[in-house]
């Protein structure tokens, strides 16, 4: 579109865009601050005049639904196997969803819509652009803001009669008991092993049913723990898996709809447990293989008498729970921040800025990118040679050949996504005779951060 | 003995990313049945192509792997002592943590 015959060069446009974006960020931040101030004021007002809100004003007769409730939930009430009774059970129940990510997003949408009395949301994270393909409760407008605030706003927009409680904090042994005590049912929508043990143990200590879901890549798993004498997470997995077996969505990828399906099924199980209808998925596990369109439901072991959490002899106490070190137990961090290795001496490493300067000066070198081939296809640095870490050993001759084509003093640099695999590669290469190999600290992420802000990250 | 073996939750990566394996396991002379213990060692020798420590620990599966014999947790059928029969389906699945 020609806006009034304006003629701008690309660099002028870039400059103006940059300054507008800075201004926009400042405005967004101010809006966020004001909104949260306003929310505090409204919450105070609400607590003073709680009985005057429309939903609460219309107090139903004992055991009956208000006219608004009957209309809103009419399609539930029309189900003979659900009806007024199960709907009333939902309205009198509360559910805590831990994690407002890929699983929590669809679960929360349905749990708020279906008429639970109270829905709590725990998360300490903020919304990022690369969340939106699967975390469908969040919108672009909330990028950079708290996931809990974002999810709560959507839930309130869908159903203003549900009490949405925001817990903008990480779920830890120090706050877990206090938070969970206030709810009837717990939905585990987290993304790491220590959280899964911690949430299951906390449910055992407090006697809460746990709707547990997980998704990664193209597969999902679902079961209900600690329900009606059924097993808990530790009955099934008494010993934590090796950390190398715990993949993260940020490394292995995940098809957005897969956690979507599992999250919806978690909402379904929570509704069954709260509504006291049907047969919750306890003592059974659902396994979803999205690519081959196969769902299998298997029978799993019952409660273990020897279980360290729920076993007959020594059930876990609140105090034991508070003092348990879940990160140590699973050898992995509760937060999902990526690993930062430090394997190499300083002289075996260069920063991305140093690499940039050497490259500009025309220093003869070979750059090996050790990421998997499908990562390399997403984006790569020019003139880099892709030899994935897993095949490095078999492809050493390619490195020698590449070096052979350069002048004698050519350097050898190794890069990866975040700077961990490149260190492993350099360690190996130095052992294999490439004594001058160096890794680029922080990988392509540091290149994007420190050298070329336009370089895509993923 | 013909068996269907399935790997999931990432374990398929240890056997060249193939999830379903239709296999024939030859029994020792004079034996008519196969135990899970024997099958595990057969799988380790014949199917696992890399990082065997991601599949087994000692003579059993590593922590975090569920074993299902005909859609039933092997804890319910005797774990390593479970007797397999012709056409049984054995699933090895690694527990997922992502979300």
From TrEMBL, chain A:
| Gene Ontology process terms (BP) | Mo-molybdopterin cofactor biosynthetic process; tRNA wobble position uridine thiolation
Q: Which PANTHER family match?
A: ADENYLYLTRANSFERASE AND SULFURTRANSFERASE MOCS3, UBIQUITIN-ACTIVATING ENZYME E1
InterPro entries in alphabetical order: MOCS3/Uba4 (IPR028885), Rhodanese-like_dom (IPR001763), Rhodanese-like_dom_sf (IPR036873), ThiF/MoeB/HesA (IPR045886), ThiF_NAD_FAD-bd (IPR000594), Ubiquitin-activating_enz (IPR035985)
State the EC number(s): 2.7.7.80, 2.8.1.11
Q: What is this protein called?
A: Adenylyltransferase and sulfurtransferase MOCS3
Task: State the species of origin.
Answer: Erythranthe guttata
Cofactors per UniProt?
A: Zn(2+)
Which pathway is recorded for this entry? tRNA modification; 5-methoxycarbonylmethyl-2-thiouridine-tRNA biosynthesis; Cofactor biosynthesis; molybdopterin biosynthesis
Tell me the residue numbers annotated for binding Zn(2+): 232, 235, 307, 310
From TrEMBL, chain B:
Q: Name one GO cellular component term.
A: nucleus
Known pathway: tRNA modification; 5-methoxycarbonylmethyl-2-thiouridine-tRNA biosynthesis
- Keyword Cell division included in the entry's annotation: no
Q: What is its main location?
A: cytoplasm
What PTM annotation applies here? C-terminal thiocarboxylation occurs in 2 steps, it is first acyl-adenylated (-COAMP) via the hesA/moeB/thiF part of the MOCS3/UBA4 homolog, then thiocarboxylated (-COSH) via the rhodanese domain of the MOCS3/UBA4 homolog.
For whether the record's keyword set contains Aminoacyl-tRNA synthetase, the answer is no
List of residues that carry 1-thioglycine: 99
Q: Which SUPFAM superfamilies match?
A: MoaD/ThiS
Keywords for the protein's UniProt record, in alphabetical order: Cytoplasm, Isopeptide bond, tRNA processing, Ubl conjugation pathway
Annotated GO molecular function terms are: protein tag activity
Q: Which GO terms describe its biological process?
A: protein urmylation; tRNA thio-modification; tRNA wobble uridine modification
Q: Which InterPro entries match?
A: Beta-grasp_dom_sf (IPR012675), Mopterin_synth/thiamin_S_b (IPR016155), Urm1 (IPR015221)
Query: For the cross-link Glycyl lysine isopeptide (Gly-Lys) (interchain with K-? in acceptor proteins), what are the residue positions?
Result: 99
In terms of superkingdom, the source organism counts as: Eukaryota
Q: Where in the cell is it found?
A: Cytoplasm
Function in brief: Acts as a sulfur carrier required for 2-thiolation of mcm(5)S(2)U at tRNA wobble positions of cytosolic tRNA(Lys), tRNA(Glu) and tRNA(Gln). Serves as sulfur donor in tRNA 2-thiolation reaction by being thiocarboxylated (-COSH) at its C-terminus by MOCS3. The sulfur is then transferred to tRNA to form 2-thiolation of mcm(5)S(2)U. Also acts as a ubiquitin-like protein (UBL) that is covalently conjugated via an isopeptide bond to lysine residues of target proteins.
Q: Which family does it belong to?
A: Belongs to the URM1 family.
Could you tell me what this protein is called? Ubiquitin-related modifier 1 homolog
Please report the organism this UniProt entry assigns to the protein. Erythranthe guttata
Classification of source organism: Eukaryota, Viridiplantae, Streptophyta, Embryophyta, Tracheophyta
């Amino acid at each position: 579109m020609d806006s009034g015959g304006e003629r701008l060069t690309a660099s002028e446009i870039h400059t103006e865009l940059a300054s507008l974006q800075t201004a926009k960020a400042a405005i967004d931040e101010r809006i966020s601050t004001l909104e949260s101030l306003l929310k505090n004021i409204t919450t105070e007002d609400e607590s003073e005049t709680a009985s005057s809100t429309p939903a609460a004003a219309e107090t139903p007769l004992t055991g009956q639904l208000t006219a608004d409730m009957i209309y809103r939930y009419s399609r539930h009430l029309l189900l003979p196997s659900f009806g007024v009774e199960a709907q009333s059970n939902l309205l009198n129940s509360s559910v805590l969803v831990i994690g407002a990510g890929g699983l929590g997003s669809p679960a929360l949408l349905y749990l708020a819509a279906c008429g639970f009395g109270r829905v709590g949301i725990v998360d300490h994270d903020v919304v990022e652009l690369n969340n939106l393909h699967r975390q469908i409760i969040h919108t672009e407008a909330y990028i950079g803001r708290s996931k809990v605030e974002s999810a709560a706003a959507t839930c309130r927009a869908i159903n203003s009669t549900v009490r949405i409680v925001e817990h903008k904090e990480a779920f830890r042994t120090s706050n877990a008991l206090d938070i969970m005590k206030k709810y009837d049912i717990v939905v585990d929508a987290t993304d790491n092993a220590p959280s899964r043990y911690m949430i299951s143990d906390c449910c055992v200590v407090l006697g809460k049913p746990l709707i547990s879901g997980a998704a990664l890549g193209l597969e999902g798993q679902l079961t209900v723990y600690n329900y009606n004498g059924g097993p808990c997470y530790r009955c099934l997995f008494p010993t934590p898996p090796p950390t190398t077996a715990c993949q993260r969505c940020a490394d292995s990828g995940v098809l957005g709809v897969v956690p979507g399906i599992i999250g919806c099924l978690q909402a379904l199980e929570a509704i069954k447990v709260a509504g006291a209808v049907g047969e919750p998925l306890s003592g059974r596990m659902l396994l979803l293989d999205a690519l081959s369109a196969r769902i299998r439901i298997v029978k799993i072991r019952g409660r273990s008498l020897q279980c360290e959490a729920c076993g007959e002899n020594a059930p876990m106490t609140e105090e034991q729970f508070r003092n348990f070190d879940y990160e140590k137990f699973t050898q992995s961090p509760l937060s999902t921040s990526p690993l930062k290795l430090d394997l190499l001496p300083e002289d075996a490493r260069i920063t991305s800025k140093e690499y940039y300067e050497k490259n500009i000066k025309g220093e003869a070198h070979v750059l090996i990118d050790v990421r998997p081939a499908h990562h390399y296809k997403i984006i790569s640095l020019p003139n880099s040679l892709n030899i994935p870490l897993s095949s490095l050993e078999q492809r050493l001759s390619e490195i020698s050949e590449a070096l052979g084509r350069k002048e004698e003093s050519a350097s050898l640099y190794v890069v990866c996504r975040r700077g961990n695999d490149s260190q492993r590669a350099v360690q190996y290469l130095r052992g294999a005779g490439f004594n001058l190999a160096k890794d680029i600290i922080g990988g392509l992420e540091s290149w994007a951060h420190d050298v070329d802000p336009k370089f895509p990250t993923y | 003995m013909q068996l269907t073996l399935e790997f999931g939750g990432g374990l398929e990566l240890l056997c060249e990313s193939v999830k379903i394996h239709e296999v024939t396991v030859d029994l020792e002379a004079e034996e008519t049945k196969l135990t899970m213990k024997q099958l595990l060692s057969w799988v380790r020798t014949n199917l696992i192509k890399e990082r065997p420590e991601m599949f087994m620990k000692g003579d059993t599966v590593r922590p975090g792997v569920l074993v299902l014999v005909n859609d039933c947790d092997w804890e319910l059928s005797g774990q390593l002592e479970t007797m397999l029969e012709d056409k049984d389906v054995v699933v090895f699945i690694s527990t997922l943590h992502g979300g």
